[in-house]
Amino acid sequence: MKKKLLLICIPLLAVIICVALFFGLREKDMKITVKTENELQPVYGWGTSSCWWSQNVSNEKTREDIAKYLYSKEGLGLNIYRYNVGAGYDEENNRVDNPWRLTESFLVKNEETGKWEYDFTRDKNAVEMLKKCLSYGCIDTVILFANSPHYSFTVSGQSSGGMTAYKSNLKKECYEDYVDYLLTITEHFIDEGIPVTHISPINEPQWSWGGESVRQEGCHYEVDEVITLMRMFAKEIKKRNLPVKLYGPESGDISWQTNGWFERMKADKDISSVLGALCYHSYWSDNYAVQKEDFGNFINSNFSDTRVDMSEWCELPCEHGTQTIESALIMARVIGSDMALSHVNSWTNWVAVNQIGINSEDGLDHADGLFSATNDFSEYSIAKRYYALAHYSKFIPTGSVMVESENTVSTLNITEDENLAEWDIKRKVGSYELTQSAYKTPDGKTVLVLVNEGEDKDVKLDVTGKGMTVYTTDETRNLEQTYTGEKQKQITLTKNSIVTVVFE
Length: 504
Prior knowledge:
Helices cover 28% and strands 25% of the residues. It is α/β, with parallel strands linked by helices. The strands form five sheets. Strands 22-21-24-19-18-15-1-20-23 form a nine-stranded mixed beta sheet.
């Protein structure tokens, strides 16, 4: 009898010990500590761009509704607006077949005189959208950006790049013309009462932008060409006494030439004298947490006194439907990691709206915007990722500051990406199952954003405050208030969820 009892007790004891160890480790691991006294970088806000869609919104009610969703306090409350200065196109010399990827230019040829003249009645819908968004009072940063110089200044006569890949399409003799063109448009906007704060004349200069296949506006620049052109813009901005700053170089990949461009732009006396922000795009680094952290260390070591913005991102390639929680999780994770690991001062989404793109394999809409719409905007819908951005923009206003937070919830598994050997780069692949970032707002609140890409988790919280409110987005909920009341020491994150906790 004793022997039988012993045989029963030993396995039972082993189970009890394993369970105790499991929960002990779980209790130890599942904890986030926010240190509000350890302030990191200031937060200058959140934004999106008007590129490729705003020119198609002709209905006033649609314009008002989308503007409210994006730039009102009822909506996302975004404060950064990127306006696309279109490079125009010659209908007889044009290889871009999607009208959403072509834009009107203010510079047009007078067929009677043969001279180029400005016509500021052009791009009317896009300008009206900017004005409508401004009317809600949240915008403090207006950036005029150009994907390409005007097509008349280019070697190919096209705004979509040259006939040869990886070769600048801007004619050497047209550098001054391009500077005058973009600053003349800037002056007009300012005269019209539009508070332009920055100009960005170069976009993703390292990409090929040209060759046999083209799909949109773009222009390649070598490093020296970037610096030369930026220096010319800087000198002319000062000469004209314009109240705008340079914004650039809008690098398309933090692993490719970005560090060098940042260093050279900051070191150049002319450029740095009117430099509003160094900026880059967070493409191709969604799952490269180590690389983001290395870039953040570079920023902290060399540009602690300079604004650094993440000025463009979307899921690329866009592998998830607009209504899937996966699409929102990826965006929320990228925002959090760019803020927490790369220490950027602001974060801007790529396009606010894109065309509905039904994938033939799964039948889902794979548009990459915050909204997707028909070409004429007779129908449009809110994407799930809209709420991912809302978890940050609605609760962390400009003037906030990022604070230190310790995450003992998940670890980073690292492997080498051999597919990038052709760039002579081996990036360390890996992302956290739980991504967190913490902020202190101007009114004294502490905001913690958690992105859980896994199963349900019980997370202990070590954060100062007496009360807290929790907002959740998951498979079935969109920014739903799921708790408000006294501060809790622990919360449960549902499977595949985005959670914002506001402590007061």
